[in-house]
Amino acid sequence: MRTLIAAIDQGTTSTRCIIYADDFSKIASAQREHGQSLPGPGLVEHDALEILANTEVVIREALAAADVQGGELAAVGITNQRETFLLWDRATGEPCAPAIVWQDARSRELCVELEADPRSAELAARTGLPISTYFSGPKLAWLLRERPDLRAAAERGELCFGTMESWLIWNLSGGPAGGVHVTDATNACRTFLVDIERGAWDDELLDWMDIPASILPRIVVNAQTGGWALTKSDGPFGAAIPLCAAIGDQQAALVGQRCFEVGDAKNTYGTGCFLLWNTGKNLVRSHAGLLSTVAYQFPGEAPCFALEGSVAVAGSLIQWLRDQLRMIDSASEIEALARSVPDHGDVHVVPAFGGLFAPHWRPDARGVICGLTHHSNRAHIARAALESTAFQVREVIDAMREDTGVQLSSLRVDGGMAANDLLLQFQSDLLGVPVERGPDLESTALGAATMAALAEGLCPDRESLRAARRTERSFAPACSRADAELRMRGWHKAVARSLDWVDPVD
User: Fold this and answer.
1) Cα first-last separation, the chain
2) Can you say whether residue 238 is alpha, beta or left, with left for phi > 0 and alpha for psi between -120 and 50 degrees?
3) What is the pLDDT of residues 457-468, one digit of tens each?
4) Which of the 8 DSSP states describes residue 190?
5) pLDDT tens-digit series, residues 160-178
6) Average pLDDT in the 132-143 region?
């Protein structure tokens, strides 16, 4: 009989379920996109019930495609878009409002208010994060301030708060009929409500943002033998299976890339772009605009930490060219269009649609296309759009080098955009180090499956997994350092033109 693992990957644009064998070969998968609601400038929302329904559908489809028989499925792991959150009613399971997405900037005025507080630097330091609209804590504070009815219900203990893995675990384990309300260490540390050194909700931070502790889930490790709960037998799995792993998507990609040693780094080119550098048991405090984050935590162990550089817009810029500007019919066309010109023709695209994330943290920035001449055409814009992702990653790598004093020797990459050879070659040119693409670009799902397998003892230990990793293709630098620095100077000029677009909040 086969031993199988299910990984649920709940992302920003879609939800997938992948069934793996215990050697991590893929048996089957299913995927469904969900709607992106953009009710106003800087506002991004999801329908949590649609995401839950899609999750149940893809689970059933993947199980059917794999022809899973009774007793074969041994474990379930979940990975998710991290800072997206919602509030729901404990008694009914109904969401109280749309899920507010990590890209959403509605809490900008509240963040300015928090920054003006004399305690801001001290309290933000506890989280390892800057005060930013990126994180769910300020957005939750905004929601409770805007909706007195929700505040009253929260204070009565009637509501649950959670990021998307918390929402799915609660529903898959019973929902209103006994669902388990937990969140894992990697998602919890990205709420701006957790003392990262203690790994616990911080009462002073909660008081600072006026958030009732009663709505918060219990914080758990990322992999737990036997799980924190079993899937309900009448749910999409059709049996009681251990929900034994949960991990935020970028930390899951770190695990999927087998980055278990200090100094290992990976970059995921997805909706956004996220580079994590494993710092081991050492919690490195960034002075260069990066985030200190939990990489993963196992039972009985201290957490492993990472430095992270978060870029808000990467693959979503290509979607924007497709959906908003109608420049291309499908995202897969972008590389051929970009290759039709020898270079970007001095055109730069800075995709600061809701501000700039790491290392700038400038909510006042907005997107710009600059350097246009009569010579410029849509191919130059397409190439500049691709290259903007590589420029942003180079800025993050520079910040990591400043924080750690360590020179990167290579970069492992994954995510949908990592299939683009032109992008990865340009990335290697800018960094001056090899960029290594693995055989599986879906490292987030692989990481969730790996954590579930480690929890249940279904795979070798972390050291053996790292030793067995493979590279499908390595991209070596093909330009001089002087040329790379000249290209960066052009990018820095473009970034400067994106700043100070939004007037300061009084």
Assistant:
1) 65
2) left
3) 998 888 898 988
4) T
5) 999 999 999 999 999 999 9
6) 94
Is residue 275 helix, strand or coil? strand
Q: Measured between alpha carbons, how far is 333 from 176 in angstroms, rounded to an integer?
A: 45
Alpha carbon 157 to chain centroid distance? Answer: 29
Unique residue bearing structure tokens 């890209």: 103
Distances (CA, A) of 185 to 148, 210, 274, 295, 387: 30, 22, 18, 9, 34
Two tokens, residue 143: 């929601």
Distance in angstroms (rounded) separating the CA atoms of residues 294 and 303: 6
Question: How far are the Cα atoms of 341, 371, 391, 419 from residue 499, in angstroms, in the given order?
Answer: 29, 16, 16, 31
Structure tokens at 432: 């001056």
| Rounded Cα–Cα distance for residues 307 and 292 (Å) | 5
Strand partners, 248: 80
The confidence score (pLDDT) of residue 506 equals 46
3-class state of residue 133 by DSSP:
coil
DSSP per residue over 380-427, as a string? HHHHHHHHHHHHHHHHHHHHHHHHH------EEEESGGGG-HHHHHHH
pTM (two decimals): 0.88
**How many CB atoms are closer than 10 A to CB 27?**
19
- Give the CA count within 13 Å in the CB-facing half-sphere of 333: 11
Domains of the chain, earliest start first: 4-250 (3.30.420.40), 258-437+476-506 (3.30.420.40)
The stretch 3-16 carries a mean pLDDT of 95
Residue 79's beta-bridge partner residues? 9, 247
What pLDDT score does 188 carry? 97
Instruction: Tell me if 205 sits within 8 A of 192, measured CB to CB.
Output: yes
For residue 78, give the nearest of 278, 275, 243, 307 by alpha carbon.
243
pLDDT in tens, 353-384: 988 988 998 988 999 999 999 999 999 999 99
CA angle 178, 179, 180 (to 5 degrees): 115
Q: Which two tokens stand for residue 342?
A: 């020898």
- Token readout for 282 is 């050492």
Hey, what long-range contacts does 40-44 have (CB within 8 A, 24 or more apart)?
42/104, 42/105, 42/106, 42/108, 42/354, 43/104, 43/105, 43/106, 44/100, 44/101, 44/103, 44/104, 44/354
The full 3-state SS of 19-81, as one line of letters, equals: EEECCCCEEEEEEEECCCECCCCCCCEECHHHHHHHHHHHHHHHHHHHCCCCCCEEEEEEEEC
